[in-house]
Structure formats: C-alpha cells, structure tokens
Design brief:
The structure is a single chain. The chain starts with a strand and ends with a helix. The chain is an alpha/beta fold and 257 residues long. It is built from 10 helices and 8 strands. The structure holds 1,3-dihydroxyacetonephosphate. 1,3-dihydroxyacetonephosphate binds next to β8.
C-alpha cells in the first residue's frame, strides 16, 4: 500500500524569501526523521517561480516537489505555458492538475486535464488530478454525477493506479473553513474508489486525497475515514507547524482505520 500523502499546495502565496523560509522549516523537521512525522509521504507545491530555488534546498529526498499545472505540449511556441520537461529540469517530480481554481478561473476542462495528465505520464511524472463539486451542484444533489464525470473524463487513456492520485476537493470547503463532514467524505471517497475499481487496472494503488479546510484539528478524524489516502492542503500548508502537525495527526488517524 502506498503511504498516506501530506501535500501542501501553496497556491499563489509568498515571496522568494518567505517560501524559502517555509521550505527550510519543513525540511528541517522532515530531515530529523522524527517518529512523529515518519510514515507519511510529503509533497509541496510552491509557486512555479520558486520551485528551482527550493529544489536546491532539498538534500535528502524527504519531500516531493510538484508543479500546479503543466502544458499538454512539448517545448515550443506556447507563450506563458510551462512544459513537463521544464518542471522536471528544476526538480519537480509531480504535478497537480485540474484544481478547481484552474477549472473556474481558466476555463480548464476535464478534457484539457486528461491531455496534460497524458503528457505528464509520458514524462514519467506523478500526477494528482483534482475533482470537485460546487455548492450549487451539491444542493441540487448532483455531486456524485459531477465527480464521476470529471474522473472518467480527466483520466488519461491507459491510466493505471500507479502514478496517479485523485484529490476530491469540494469547492465549498476550499478556503472557507467549512470542512466536509467525515460522513460526506466517506460517502464520496467510497464512491470514487468504486469508479476507479470498475474502470482502471491497479486501481487499489491510486490514492484518493481529500482537500478543503484540512487543519490540525480535523486531520485525525479525516485520516481515519475509509479510502482517504492523503490530504491536499492549502491555507494550513503555509505554516510549517500546522503542515507538520497535520502529518502527525494523520498518523494517529490512520491507526484508527
Ligand atoms: P484550503 O486547505 O485552504 O481549504 O485549500 C484546499 C485546496 O484548494 C488545496 O488544493
């Protein structure tokens, strides 16, 4: 079984200095390999411009660096885009795709996500595909159908469970302080697991991450939920103490599974 993933999405926050300081604090705790953090896998996704500098700070392979998007094309005339080749060149081994903020703010479709995921897979990068429903869709009782359609359309052809993770991040829980209840998370994660099992090879190896106002106070309860294989954390990943505390709480929660 793959380890529980504690993933920090720093979004468009910080400066070179503050991001490097945040990385230094996270790395010094992880490098000490203390009992309290060992056992999870850790990933950070700094703003693109700072990945290179932070990559140079990483001495031991204690944390995975991830981009927040990638081009579906190879290097060439694509102004403003960033290729998988470039991401790998500066040390990123993973890429987050289809985040709700990209779907909403950039009109990114699940078809776009599938093309990008295919390119990332060709580049041998790990991929986190985000899926979500809005509050209106949940209130209309459409959340399962929306998530099913996003998963099936966003997965690249020939996807297996080995290098792809799914992150379920209900839009209404992102940055709002409103976490989905453990029951809501369980229902959706079990549903996603069934979709993956029905449609993919080695689906068991695909982790299903939860994201949306994860914090130290709710991490243990959420980590104990069946089919929760990690967290994608926004706000609480911007402070080393809360990011690492979530890791510790998640270890406790996994024991309750
Ligand atoms: P918050 O943890 O700030 O709700 O953000 C979640 C998220 O969007 C992570 O990708």
């Amino acid at each position: 079984m793959r380890p529980f993933l504690i993933a920090g999405n720093w979004k468009m926050n910080g400066s070179m200095k503050s991001c490097q300081e945040l990385a230094t604090s996270i790395l010094s705790s992880l490098n000490s390999d203390s009992e309290s953090v060992r056992g999870n896998e850790y990933l950070i996704s700094p703003p693109f411009l700072y990945i290179d500098a932070i990559s140079r700070q990483i001495e031991k392979d204690v944390v995975i660096l991830a981009g927040k998007d990638c081009s579906a094309s190879d290097n060439g005339a694509h102004t403003g885009d960033i290729s998988c080749e470039m991401l790998k060149d500066v040390g990123a081994k993973s890429v987050i795709l289809g985040h709700s903020e990209r779907r909403q703010n950039h009109g990114e479709t699940s078809q776009d996500v599938a093309k990008k995921a295919e390119k990332a897979a060709q580049a041998k990068m790990a991929v986190i595909i985000c899926v979500c429903e809005t509050l209106e869709e949940r209130e209309a009782g459409e959340e399962f159908e929306i998530v099913r359609s996003q998963i099936l359309t966003s997965l690249p052809s020939g996807a297996t469970g080995q290098d792809i993770d799914i992150a379920y991040e209900p839009v209404w829980a992102i940055g709002t302080g409103k976490t989905a209840s453990a029951e809501d998370v369980e229902a959706m994660h079990d549903f996603i697991r069934n979709i993956l099992n029905e449609n993919l090879d080695k689906a068991d190896e695909m982790r299903i991450l939860y994201g949306g106002s994860v914090k130290p106070e709710n991490a243990k309860e959420l980590a104990a939920v069946s089919n929760v294989g990690g967290f994608l954390i926004g706000g609480a990943s911007l402070k080393a103490e809360s990011f690492l505390e979530i890791g510790r709480e998640a270890l406790l929660g996994q024991k309750d599974k």
